[in-house]
């Protein structure tokens, strides 16, 4: 059965919408395969606007991995802006893929990548536009399997009503495994309907199917237990971990859009995972262990990617890029190779203690010397011990002083507000740190015109971290603390004018907290928000705190729990957490001990350089740390190419 | 520095490419196909590219022009093919000449447009065209960044006529049939020649003029294609090739990349 393109109908709507180019597809390196020649078809969605979703590495990787397979097809779809949504509803144009403009409902799998919980309402918009029932229980064989992945999927319970399946961890191998299970089931004539294929997935232990688990509650609203309700469905679902990144050199042919997007560069993931052990960092906890891509693997990906895209910038991505064992050789090797091509290098995440000036010089050799950005995260030494971000103020001052001495004039510092045990004093220290940075800069350069920008986000406790038990700071307290800091910075006559101050108010953080640590009862809240018109919650101009709170009151009526119960309440050791049956490999007792260490301001080392401290991931997941150095250098390309 | 003038298109769905989008795409295509670009001096060097008179977003075009500066001499036709390969289908480079004459932009005196009006009967369109042409002046309004602006849309119109449906002329078959299979509805096609003036009168403005003079209100947005831009032959109301002068000034035979003329430098 051939599926028709909706483009002719969509095309008539495009002259009436903003930035129509984002809906027409045709990106360089995009793939359109023959529908009838494939037996398993995926629609991949990043549930945000095209300009944010297109550069997403996760979607790009899976898109290529799937399309490389014979008989498998993957296309992409993104959230449409409200202007087009209204026209699509009026003219009955369904949610479509941008590759061949096929209706999403026609695919076998509708896979969504959630890097944040704020995309949940956009999922509901897309399902509804696609003509797919919002709730999994109402779907039939005519509907795709709705699959959630990405970091937010490590607690898929708030969207359990809406998804058929969730996969946690690395997607590369997982999507291929899922493809095979679906292919076999289809070839057999789809025996047992949707339930059967979902059961086959669930039985592997690597795919979470919410409908096969019942949640029982205690009288006080806490969870009593989560029980499988089908024979053969395991009690816990494991995360997927890809070993040997060099075997997965994706994306090989990054997509190059015609529309402008948030990141326009050739991104190479230089390692996955992080064991620095920052206690607030969900990404660092759930992506263990550290697996480095080799220097030669990186060199090949950069070369092939630049040829395929024409990008002017290479981004070396990871959770803490300067921690790659051979980052110095990588940066120098790449800067040497591309001196004549005016290719800039960027290292989006750099720790203060891993920074060195030689590296910084290599990075800026072919491009601009813009500002330096560091994330001390906590203003006081004490709070940095609590969060295990072991960066001392001396480290920072030494680093910025070298940087200023080498020509940088601008430093940006990232912090969080609302960390466990935090007091006003910890936050006011942020201002002191900024003053010290400027003071040092003036000293080193002999100039008064030195800028330091502090940017502060609200801390949101996340599942699978030592802070998963922590109380979240209320929006009012967050705002009050940030106001004090602002007043103390503005009031400083000597430095105040040189300190840029950026912060987010506490309200969006409460909604994120509700969704992050929510359970299945939150589904009704998400649905109520969606039905009230909630969309694009990651966008300030679309986000409505009041709508979320009103919907929470409605959705949680009769449950005995409320927003505070989910956010500002501290959990105890005994409590069953909504995500306990999703296994990230981390030992819950280890996380608890680390939480206790945090409260006692005890730090923990990085297991890359010190003995194992039994977080549990490697034995649990049969994985291991993979790091260099390999001792190999990047050779000039003229030699490599011969 | 060798300079090359290129003619390119915006066809089919890629007509929704904005000018900024096209610029980025083109500069990346230059990198992918390793064209030896000349760069501007300064702290952040940019490749030397200048664009002329871009068609509005959503309007297709067979005749957009730009000029690039090269750090090494290249054969224009080879360069054209190379760049065309590197751009997505729909953004096609269809002509290239080495620059031998100045004042190119001044040569772009007028544009010829094809305006397809789906759902409009030919007779109705013909009546509106006649009324429009009979008017001395047709005041229209357009919303600009500085608010609503009123100006005459009639004066710069050098030609306006109903054309017989053409077959297989455009990509995606957009210029086919009077009541084609795509919509199974009537369809009128206008050919329009407009002098480039200030303020610029665009096909949209002429459509506003047709609405003002004859109440012509197409039920769906018009599909507009720029067919040509260049010198205007006032006698015949046709637009001629703006690259003709450069072509005529070229010496016989292809340019040799390593030949005696290869003395140009950045």
UniProtKB/TrEMBL annotation, chain A:
* CDD domains from the UniProt entry: Radical_SAM
Cited Pfam families: Radical_SAM, Radical_SAM_N2
Q: Where is the Radical SAM core domain?
A: 260-498
GO molecular function terms noted in the UniProt entry:
catalytic activity; iron-sulfur cluster binding
In terms of NCBIfam families, this protein maps to:
rSAM_fuse_unch
What name does this protein carry? B12-binding domain-containing radical SAM protein
Q: Which organism is it from?
A: Kitasatospora indigofera
UniProtKB/TrEMBL annotation, chain B:
Q: What Pfam families does its record include? A: DUF2344
Q: Superkingdom of the source? A: Bacteria
What InterPro entries is this protein classified in?
Answer: DUF2344 (IPR018768)
* Domain (DUF2344) ranges: 3-203
Residue ranges, annotated region (Disordered): 246-266
NCBIfam families reported in the protein's UniProt record: sam_1_link_chp (TIGR03936)
Q: What is this protein called?
A: Radical SAM protein
Q: Per the UniProt entry, what species is this protein from, by scientific name? A: Kitasatospora indigofera
């Amino acid at each position: 059965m051939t599926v028709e393109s909706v483009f002719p109908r969509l095309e008539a709507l495009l002259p009436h919408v903003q930035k129509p180019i984002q809906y027409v597809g045709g990106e360089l390196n995009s793939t359109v395969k023959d529908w009838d020649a494939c037996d398993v078809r995926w629609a991949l969605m990043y549930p945000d606007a095209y300009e944010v979703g297109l550069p997403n590495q996760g979607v790009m990787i899976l898109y290529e991995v799937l399309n490389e397979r014979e008989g498998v097809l993957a296309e992409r779809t993104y959230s449409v802006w409200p202007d087009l949504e209204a026209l699509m509803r009026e003219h009955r144009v369904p949610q479509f893929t941008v590759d061949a403009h096929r209706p999403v409902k026609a695919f076998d799998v509708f896979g969504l990548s959630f890097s944040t919980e704020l995309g949940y309402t956009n999922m509901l918009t897309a399902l509804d536009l696609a003509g797919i029932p919002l709730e999994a229980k109402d779907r039939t064989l005519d509907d795709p399997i709705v699959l959630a992945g990405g970091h937010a999927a490590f607690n898929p319970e708030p969207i359990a009503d809406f998804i058929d399946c969730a996969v946690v961890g690395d997607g590369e191998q997982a999507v291929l495994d899922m493809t095979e299970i679906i292919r076999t089931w289809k070839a057999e004539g789809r025996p047992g309907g949707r339930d059967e294929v979902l059961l086959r997935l669930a039985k592997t232990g690597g795919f979470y199917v919410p409908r096969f688990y019942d949640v029982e509650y205690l009288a006080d609203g806490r969870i009593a237990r989560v029980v499988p309700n089908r024979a053969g469905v395991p009690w816990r679902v494991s995360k997927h971990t890809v070993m040997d990144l060099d075997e997965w050199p994706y994306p090989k042919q990054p997509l190059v859009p015609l529309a402008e997007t948030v990141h326009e560069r050739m991104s190479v993931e230089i390692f996955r995972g992080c064991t620095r052990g920052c206690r607030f960092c969900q990404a660092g906890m759930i992506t263990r262990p550290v697996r480095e891509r080799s220097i030669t693997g990186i060199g090949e990906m950069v070369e092939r990617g630049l040829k395929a895209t024409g990008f002017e910038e290479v981004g070396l991505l990871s959770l803490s890029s300067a921690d790659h064992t051979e980052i110095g050789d990588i940066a120098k090797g790449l800067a040497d190779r591309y001196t004549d091509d005016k290719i800039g290098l960027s290292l989006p995440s750099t720790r203060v203690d891993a920074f060195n000036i030689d590296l910084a010089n290599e990075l800026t050799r072919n491009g601009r010397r813009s500002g330096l950005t560091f994330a001390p995260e906590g203003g006081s030494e004490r709070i940095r011990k609590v969060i295990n971000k072991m960066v001392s103020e001396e480290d920072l001052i030494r680093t910025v002083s070298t940087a200023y001495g080498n020509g940088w004039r601008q430093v940006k510092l990232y912090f969080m507000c609302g960390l466990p045990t935090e007091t006003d004093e910890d936050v006011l220290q942020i201002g002191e740190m900024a003053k010290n940075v400027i003071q040092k800069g003036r000293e080193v350069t002999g100039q008064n015109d030195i800028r330091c920008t502090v940017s502060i986000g609200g801390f949101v406790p996340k599942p699978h971290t030592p802070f998963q038990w922590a109380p979240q700071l209320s929006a009012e307290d967050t705002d009050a603390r940030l106001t004090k800091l602002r007043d103390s910075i503005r009031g400083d006559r000597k430095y105040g004018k040189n300190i840029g101050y950026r912060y987010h108010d506490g309200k969006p953080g409460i909604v994120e907290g509700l969704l992050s640590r929510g359970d299945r009862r939150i589904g009704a809240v998400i649905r109520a928000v969606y039905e009230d018109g909630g969309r694009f919650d990651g966008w300030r101009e679309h986000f409505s705190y009041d709508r979320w709170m009103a919907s929470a009151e409605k959705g949680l009526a009769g449950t005995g729990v409320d927003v505070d119960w989910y956010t500002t309440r501290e959990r105890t050791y005994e409590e069953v957490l909504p995500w306990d049956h999703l296994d990230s490999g981390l030992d819950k007792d280890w996380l608890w001990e680390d939480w206790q260490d945090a409260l006692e301001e005890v730090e923990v080392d990085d297991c890359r350089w010190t003995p194992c401290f039994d977080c549990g991931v490697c034995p649990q997941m049969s994985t291991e740390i993979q790091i260099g150095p390999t001792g190999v250098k990047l050779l000039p390309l003229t030699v490599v190419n011969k | 520095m060798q300079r090359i003038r290129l003619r390119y298109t915006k066809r089919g769905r890629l007509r929704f490419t904005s000018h900024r989008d096209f610029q980025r795409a083109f500069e990346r295509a230059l990198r992918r196909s390793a064209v030896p670009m000349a760069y501007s001096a300064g702290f952040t060097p940019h490749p030397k590219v200048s664009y002329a008179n871009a068609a509005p977003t959503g309007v297709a075009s067979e005749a957009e022009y730009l000029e690039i500066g090269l750090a090494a001499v290249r054969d224009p036709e080879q360069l054209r093919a190379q760049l065309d390969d590197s751009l997505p289908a729909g953004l096609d480079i269809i002509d290239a000449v080495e620059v031998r004459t100045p004042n190119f932009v001044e040569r772009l005196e007028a544009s010829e447009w094809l305006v397809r009006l789906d759902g409009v009967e030919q007779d109705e369109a013909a009546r509106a065209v006649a009324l429009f042409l009979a008017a001395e002046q047709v005041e229209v309004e357009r919303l600009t960044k500085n608010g609503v602006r009123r100006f005459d849309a009639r004066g710069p119109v050098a030609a306006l006529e109903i054309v017989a449906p053409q077959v297989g002329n455009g990509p995606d078959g957009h210029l086919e049939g009077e009541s084609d299979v795509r919509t199974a509805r009537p369809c009128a096609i206008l050919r329009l020649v407009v002098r480039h003036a200030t303020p610029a009168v665009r096909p949209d403005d002429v459509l506003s003029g047709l609405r003002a003079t004859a109440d012509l209100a197409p039920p769906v947005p018009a599909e507009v294609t720029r067919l040509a831009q260049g010198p205007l032959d006032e006698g015949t109301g046709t637009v001629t090739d703006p690259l003709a002068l450069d072509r005529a000034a070229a010496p016989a035979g292809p340019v040799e990349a390593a030949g005696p003329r290869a003395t140009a430098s950045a």
